[in-house]
User: Fold Xanthine-guanine phosphoribosyltransferase from Bombella pluederhausensis.
Amino acid sequence: MTEAAQTQSINYATVTWDQLHCDARLLAAELMRKHRSFRGIVAITRGGLIPAAILGRELGCRLIESISVVSYEGEEGTQQEPKLLKTAAAAGDGEGFLIVDDLVDSGVTARYVREMLPKAKFACLYAKPNGRAYTDHFVTEFPQDTWVLFPWDMAPQFVPPLSRSHKA
Ligand SMILES: O=P(O)(O)OC[C@H]1O[C@H](OP(=O)(O)OP(=O)(O)O)[C@H](O)[C@@H]1O
Ligand SMILES: Nc1nc2[nH]cnc2c(=O)[nH]1
Ligand SMILES: [Mg+2]
Assistant:
């Protein structure tokens, strides 16, 4: 959990499927401009899987490896020591590979994965100030005290009209 979450002063930012898709395409365009091509992509599961699929499609990259690192327990959970559940065996030392995640927050996950794949580049959709030094590319920065709600974290819900709560 972020420092802000622990002190109960957390804000939320919601990201819709459309916004996420749009941001992933913006990230792909930047990667196309700055790099010739990638041999493969390493998605950090689970949050990096959907961004990696979109980037793979846009960049024409079909070799998608994954690495599984757990850093948080529960939704908006407590941050703990990263636990490695699966290595990115196909990526070697990361040469020619792009590591993809949904966001960097404290940067702990990104730093851990970069140490395992030192020659890879790193890209994510969103970054918070404490984590941005650990990513080579990102699209949008969010404040450190903001918890980003991804489309897979949310569901549309009925909201009663205002007039109902104003009945005498
Ligand atoms: O910069 P950090 O503070 O390390 O936080 C960022 C990481 O936290 C989330 O993953 P999480 O560990 O919650 O697992 P998940 O991707 O399976 O949801 C997110 O997807 C990043 O991987
Ligand atoms: N969904 C989500 N997961 C995170 N893991 C670390 N920070 C965040 C965040 O802001 N949102
Ligand atoms: Mg993750």
Summary: The radius of gyration is 17 Å.
